[in-house]
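Internal tracking record. Fields below are filled automatically when a chain is submitted to the structure queue. Please do not edit lines marked as system-generated. If the sequence contains nonstandard residues, flag them in the REMARKS field before resubmitting.
Queue: standard
Priority: normal
Entity type: single polypeptide chain
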Amino acid sequence: MIQGIKSYIGQKLVNLQGWKTNRRIIVIESDDWGGISMPSKDAYNKLLKSGIDVDKNPYSKYDSLASASDLEILFETLSKYKDKNGNSPVITANTNVANPDFEKIKESGFEEYFYEPFTKTLEKYPEHKNAFALWQQGIANKIFVPQFHGREHLNPLLWLNELKEGKNPKLRLAFDLGCFNLSKDGFLQKSKIYNTAFYPYDEAQRQAMFKAIPDGLNLFEKQLGYRAESFIATGYFWNSEIEKLLSENGITSLQGLPIQKEPKIGEKHGKKLNYTGKHNKHGQVYLVRNAFFEPSLEQATDTVSDCLNRIQTAFDNKKPAILSAHRLNFIGYIDEANRTQNIALLNELLAGIVKKWPDAEFMSSNELAQIINAKKNG
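SYSTEM-GENERATED OUTPUT FOLLOWS
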């Protein structure tokens, strides 16, 4: 009862401030595309057998690079549904454009960090040979719109330093298996966050981060054929100096949750409140998530009912519904049952949306930002 009241109040608050519209706009933001996460079922089993609790972390348990089958099934599902304009639901696929080059890093004796484009990583996987062609098909059909999630889903220097020290056999085993995405228990310095790209702990990491942003955005354009316009920080950690650099490199909208976590070297991170339609001093608009389709993360929740209720609350408050739906929910490469169950739920959700709101409009994050900015400027 109390939790229900808190949830209702929280939903009201997130929709209270900011840009309003009578249009029933639905955006689906999906993070983590391009990154390795768990490379294979074999790697998962070896890590589990070694005593690493990969079975307790949904990302380790389910998430991986999307195979050709994963993409085909997702795109087929999206294409079944149409909004009032004849458009299918669109996934804003927030992408990490690179992964560590494990071979080159090892050859350097863990002295230097090297990375490879995610398209090269895809070529190494047995069920992913046609995957990037499907990315391109999804983009052409306007159901899959990659945007920027950082160069890689990692603080490379923090990770590399622990590998170089050689005191963490769990981390080295994961490295040898082509994996870097362990939970905190897999690292020696448990107070630090390794798997986020924009939380530096010293000046060297800060400078590396500044280099990685334009580097990653240029790599995004080279691989995908257009400049990214929208950004979501890994782990929701980013600060104002990042926003300036992103703005200088073409990013016009910033996705996130209502609370932005702002890293400060040598201090506990700060917090800032954002809402959809708020602009920063660079003219970038914030897009704040107010609904969730995360069945792999919230298995005790009635995902579809909860998501539909949150969409209703958004519309009641004249707000666009911005759904969070991480990649792991659509992946069956590691555990096929994960994909099967969640695609059934996605079908249920999308059918519920078009039935309940026949005037719904599906669009990507960058399209929503363009509409908000047109209203602001006009």
